[in-house]
Amino acid sequence: MLKTEPVAEEGEDAAAMLSTPGNLSEEEQNELRQELAKVEEEIQTLSQVLAAKEKHLAEIKRKLGINSLQEFKQNIAKGWQDVTATSAYKKTSETLSQAGQKASAAFLSVGSVITKKLEDVNIRSIQHSISMPAMRNSTTFKSFEEKVENLKSKVGGTKPTGGDFGEVLNSTANATCATTLEPPPEQMEQSP
C-alpha cells in the first residue's frame, strides 16, 4: 500500500535523509535511473525538435522578407499598444492632458496681458513723441520737412498739401530715379 517516509526529527539533516540512496531498494533505484535516462532522452529530443522548428521558422521569415528590424518594430508596436491599453497609462495621459490645457490657458492669459501692456506703452510713446514740440522744432526735423516739401513740389507739381506720406515717399523715389539713372536700354537703342 502506501509507504510513508520517515519524518526528520529535530536536529536531523532532512536533505541528507532525502538524498541518500540507502532509503531506496535496489529495484527502486534501477527504476529511477531508467526514468532519469528516459527523461534526459526526451529533453534532448525536444531540444532537437525545437532547434529544427526554429530553423524552419527562420527559413519561412526569410522567404516572406521579414527581417529582424521588422520584427523589432512589430514587437515595439505591440508593446506600445499593450502599454496604452493599461488603466495606469490612460489615467496618466488624461492627467497630463488636463495639465497641458491648464498650462496653455495660463500662457495664453500671460501673453495677452503682455501684449496689452506693450500696446499701451507703444501708444503712449507714439503720442508722446508726436506731441513733443522740441522734436518738431529741431533743426533736423525742419531740414527733413523742407526737403520733403521741395521734392513734393518738384515731383508732384500742384498736388494739394496733406497728401499721404507713402505717396510722398514713392514720388520722391521716382524723382530720384529719374534724375540719377540713365534712360532705359530701349530708349538708348532708338537714340542716334
UniProtKB/TrEMBL annotation:
Record keyword Coiled coil present: yes
Record keywords: Coiled coil
InterPro entries registered for this protein in UniProt: TPD52 (IPR007327)
Biased composition (Polar residues): 169-179
GO biological process, one term: B cell differentiation
Positions in coiled-coil regions: none
Entry annotated with the keyword Coiled coil: yes
Family: Belongs to the TPD52 family.
Record's protein name: Tumor protein D52
